[in-house]
Amino acid sequence: MSFTDREFRDALGQFATGVCVVTAEVDHTLLGSTVSSFNSVSLAPPLVLFSLARSALTFPLWLKATHFGVTVLAESQSDMSNRFARGGPEKWSGLAPVRGASGVPLLRGGLVTFECETYACYEGGDHEIMVGRVLSFTRTETTPLLFHGGRYSRLLSDRPIATPPDTDVWLHGW
Q1: What does the alpha-carbon distance between residue 132 and residue 120 come to, in Å, rounded to a whole number?
Q2: For residue range 158-169, what is the model confidence (pLDDT) as tens digits?
Q3: What's the pTM?
């Protein structure tokens, strides 16, 4: 390779993403991690994914999770992102999760909250790719928290840019 890990990470950082917190409970332990690696996989069945570092302290527990939640954070929730980006059990201190129908802990106040059952896990180098089947979701109309260039960012305008009418074709490869 002709590049360092840092150079590669900086190049990937040029792709603006939303910020999510994934949550679960395994063996009476609440889990939560901030991720920017959230994406849709399939509409039928409804599948989403996130990836988790194998070096995470709670990684072995995540592999046992049968259900998980994904909260897409709103612009006002950078503190929530910071809280769940840290390691250790104190990230849940003072928070009372909402329980989904499957019992999965969910966070309040997000842009979108998905409740998922674990569908598949795949080895992805130093990460594990976790795929979930969406069981339900709630959605609000607010501004997302964005991550770009190693920093939180915000939309500069809420005015949409003209989008071609065949967007589904090029977004989903039809």
Answers
A1: 7
A2: 677 676 666 555
A3: 0.88
